[in-house]
Amino acid sequence: MILMKDVYKTYANGVTALSGVNVKIDQGEFVYVVGPSGAGKSTFVKLIFREEKPSSGQIFINDINLSELKERKIPYLRRNIGVVYQDFRLLPKLTVYENIAFALEVIEESPRNIRNRVMDVLDVVGLKNKAKSIPDELSGGEQQRVSIARAIVNRPKIVIADEPTGNLDPETSLDILKTFESINEGGTTVIMATHSKAIVNQFKKRVIAIEDGIIARDEQQGEYGYEV
Ligand code: ADP
Ligand code: ADP
């Protein structure tokens, strides 16, 4: 479960990105975070995996109070949270296989486990035949599926995606959405910041709309609600 209590975030330059956010997201939910550019969506998702700290208020992730989380414990939090970015962030000189295995090697899994788990997640995203390719040899949609595989290989309870389809064409975007849906069906919480009206209105989920740093709407089976 993710709980935010009266969360404020003001950056060092004085910009207040969030002001007084209260929200509860249960394990297994699929949530879109929508709103205009600069509204605070990225800040909202970054607070969850502790890429940013709140200026005030409290954030709990599965009963862990992030304000009390020691720096050296942050890796344990991050193991439970997979993150997918708009720009994929793959290591260009490593193969698909190596990009995904990397996330497991840093936590000292056995070679056999690594192999099994990498091939399992490549199967989930439909890219078993691309294990030996390097990112440049793949389409944008395929690269994003590699980054999703990397995000789930540690079997996190939560997957956060910040504009995951922002660099992809509409058809590829729908495929990516289906991949997130199947991950969510396995019980993983999915939180996706998005500007895709087509996705939000087609695959109906909970919608949290952030405007000017506050939660303007929070609806089950919500609509995108903006023109673009
Ligand atoms: P969104 O994802 O909805 O576009 P952001 O959370 O990225 O919104 O940004 C919210 C506000 O905070 C914007 O005014 C943005 O310029 C500002 N902001 C975001 N990140 C930083 C940062 N690291 N330092 C200063 N200001 C920032
Ligand atoms: P793991 O089994 O994941 O390797 P350990 O049992 O070795 O974790 O835990 C090491 C320390 O980190 C313990 O003090 C544990 O309470 C703490 N810890 C484990 N998971 C988390 C988490 N998600 N967030 C914060 N601390 C954690």
TrEMBL record:
Gene: ftsE
The protein's name: Cell division ATP-binding protein FtsE
Assembly information from the UniProt record: Homodimer. Forms a membrane-associated complex with FtsX.
UniProt cross-references to SMART domains, sorted A to Z: AAA (SM00382)
Localization annotation: Cell membrane
Entry function: Part of the ABC transporter FtsEX involved in cellular division.
Keywords, alphabetical: ATP-binding, Cell cycle, Cell division, Cell membrane, Membrane, Nucleotide-binding
Pfam families assigned to the protein according to its UniProt record, in alphabetical order: ABC_tran
Annotated membrane topology: Peripheral membrane protein
GO terms (BP aspect): cell division
Tagged with keyword Disulfide bond: no
Domain of life: Bacteria
InterPro entries linked to this entry: AAA+_ATPase, ABC_transporter-like_ATP-bd, ABC_transporter-like_CS, ABC_transpr_LolD-like, Cell_div_FtsE, P-loop_NTPase
Principal place of residence: membrane
Domain ABC transporter: 2-228
PROSITE patterns referenced in this protein's UniProt entry, alphabetically: ABC_TRANSPORTER_1, ABC_TRANSPORTER_2
Species lineage: Bacteria, Bacillati, Bacillota, Bacilli, Bacillales
